[in-house]
Write a structure and sequence with these properties.
single chain; alpha+beta; about 25% helix; elongated
Length: about 160
């Protein structure tokens, strides 16, 4: 598994990123006997450590695995109130497209996001994907697919 760095997680910081952490605590925490909860929320980052749960514990980057949606979830109702991300993107970016062109626009946008390098996508689009907890521009195998968990930590 590829180790993450500050540059990989910093854009997720404002979106209440959930993660799984392994290892031992690096400072005093609210947890006893080094029992680490299965899902923690990233609250701050620096060059060396990831702070979780309001700084009650810190982990090194190699101990942290973010929980994210694969880009294929763009067409699933994963947003609050059952909204579908690709539909929301159409409202934000494709509003000038006629109703007849809606399906082809959504198909084109979906394929663009799936198959284009992240650095070729617009800053606004990337920002929305980070806010919605999509795995964007992360090393393969460095994150957990939220669909593989028994419960989605973002819907709790």
């Amino acid at each position: 598994m590829k180790t993450l760095e500050l540059k990989h997680l910093q854009n997720y910081l404002s979106s209440k990123l959930k993660c799984h952490c392994m290892g031992e605590f690096t400072k005093e925490s609210e947890y006893t006997d080094n029992q680490i909860p299965e899902v923690l929320e990233v609250t701050s980052l620096n060059d060396t450590y990831v702070d979780v749960n309001d700084g009650f514990c810190q982990f090194e980057y190699f101990e942290v695995t973010p929980i994210l949606h694969p880009l294929s979830d763009l067409i699933k109702p994963i947003l609050p109130d059952g909204k579908i991300p690709i539909d929301e993107l159409f409202i934000m970016y494709g509003g000038g497209v006629s109703p007849k062109g809606k399906k082809s626009w959504k198909t084109s946008m979906y394929e663009n996001v799936l198959y284009s390098p992240a650095d070729t996508l617009s800053h606004g689009l990337i920002k929305h994907l980070h806010e919605w907890h999509f795995a964007v521009d992360l090393p393969e195998g460095s994150w957990i697919d939220v669909n593989s968990l028994p419960e989605n930590p973002y819907t709790k």
